[in-house]
């Protein structure tokens, strides 16, 4: 363990220079930033590599019009520092991307994080050296770093995907992915704009794009269930109240299945046990309140298909009330299970299709055949536009990890290890890859929770683990294959008790051609935290420590 963040230099046989640190962290989003801060506080030297020019991760890249968090701002923030909690002022119920990015930059300034972050630098390879029990990390700037520990803080939704449609490079107008929106913005005034995709990114962007551009054409393959966000300025009294009892507020949220929403009314009864009047009253209240916890109006909406149908019908009825043209309303009406693709929250999404400058094209039966120089073509029709926006999502949870050539013990690569889908112990570690950790990795609650809270729990578990290894005088920790097998069974068993596996979602990797279909996140935050703590208390059971 080093006492400062200074590095010693060493020459490599290939001529590269290297520097030694205790820990290399990949990514300077909320996970990488807190990992750096926490490890520094424990006295370790850290180097963070980040592809962007500044901190912020997902909030650095996703600058599309309308980008906003779907977790309330008083909850979607770090809880580790009471002064930070008190000092930062949120302005809206749900923060916009610029405000969250400003918060990330404030945190970087406040804790002087940038000095240990190498920006515009991608990690290309990471190799575990069994002779020295260390990781050798090579980066896009030609540098190499040797570290004892290697932490992937690469985010769950950061590896963007483009659809497999021929001709994308032939389009002569402007092509943009929502997840790589240019910093300088895009001029949309007087432009004919097309957008492919109606997931969270598309649903957030579409109403704002429609206001800005001349004509907007939305290419929709699967209609979306979306619930009003009811975003509004954050009342001062609410912020003052929460700040006066922030610890208690956080504790109550930690006890929730998604680590959020403790102050939303909770119901633990079946939809089948209430009258029709009560059912509609609760859904109507949830619709009026806004937010993702619409699904918590009953205890069985995500586990019982007949219960789920009531929720589906409620939202379908709302669509038919909001959308004026019955043909457009029919195209916008989903048929699948509600909630098994991530539920979206919106601001004026359905009403946007009443605007004269917005056209909806259903490509479910007539798929996009090719992108042309001036637009795109389906089997039946050609479309022309100036700007083409891909809101087509991400290679979720595993994409950014698999993009790095990581080689563990005995020459095993992470790509080989996960060729039939991701397998982890606790969503944090992988047998064969000693001293490597993934923050919010597959097999952990991650995307099914308030991400910042899940990130904090992982960061603290990892730093405690490293400190424990040092107090033991141990040099490596590695998950056992049996622990991994049990964990994978546990994650699957939890998912199978729900309706989540029932449709083609990115939770299952179903949006990426050829990706093995595995339900990747773990349901239930509090039980997960208990299990992680128990593993640590039992001297890291399920691991071999040497
Ligand atoms: P997504 O949910 O995966 O949506 C991708 C969209 O692209 C889907 O509508 C998909 O249709 C469509 N698509 C893909 N290939 C297509 C093709 N060849 N032709 C036509 N349509 C095609 O991606 P996302 O919207 O970026 O959201 C991903 C996740 O990021 C969200 O679920 C959420 O967790 C997170 N996110 C959060 C926020 C927030 O906090 N508010 C905002 C944005 C994103 P199909 O459904 O038919 O596949």
Report on the structure:
- With 546 residues, the chain is an alpha/beta fold.
- The protein has a domain of 219 residues: FAD/NAD(P)-binding domain (3-Layer(bba) Sandwich).
- It is built from 16 helices and 21 strands.
- Strands 1, 2, 3, 4, 5, 6, 7, 18 and 19 form a nine-stranded mixed sheet that branches.
- α14 packs parallel to α16.
- It is globular, with a radius of gyration of 24 Å.
- The site of NADP nicotinamide-adenine-dinucleotide phosphate has 27 residues, from α5.
- The site of NADP nicotinamide-adenine-dinucleotide phosphate (NAP) has 27 residues, from α5.
Defining key terms:
disordered N terminus, binds NADP nicotinamide-adenine-dinucleotide phosphate, 546 residues, 9-stranded mixed β-sheet, FAD/NAD(P)-binding domain, alpha/beta
Radius of gyration: 24 Å
Main beta-sheet annotation: 9 strands, mixed
How many strand units? 21
Query: What is the H level of CATH, i.e. the homologous superfamily of the domain at 21-159 and 396-475?
Result: FAD/NAD(P)-binding domain
Helicity, as a percent range: 25-40%
Q: Which range does the strand content fall in? A: 15-25%
Short description, anyone?
The protein has helices at residues 30-41, 58-61, 82-87, 97-110, 200-212, 236-243, 246-254, 276-289, 305-322, 326-331, 349-352, 399-402, 414-417, 451-472, 481-496, 525-537; strands at 9-11, 17-26, 46-49, 117-118, 123-129, 134-139, 144-152, 174-177, 192-196, 215-220, 226-228, 344-346, 358-362, 368-371, 375-378, 382-384, 387-390, 405-407, 436-438, 477-479, 543-545.
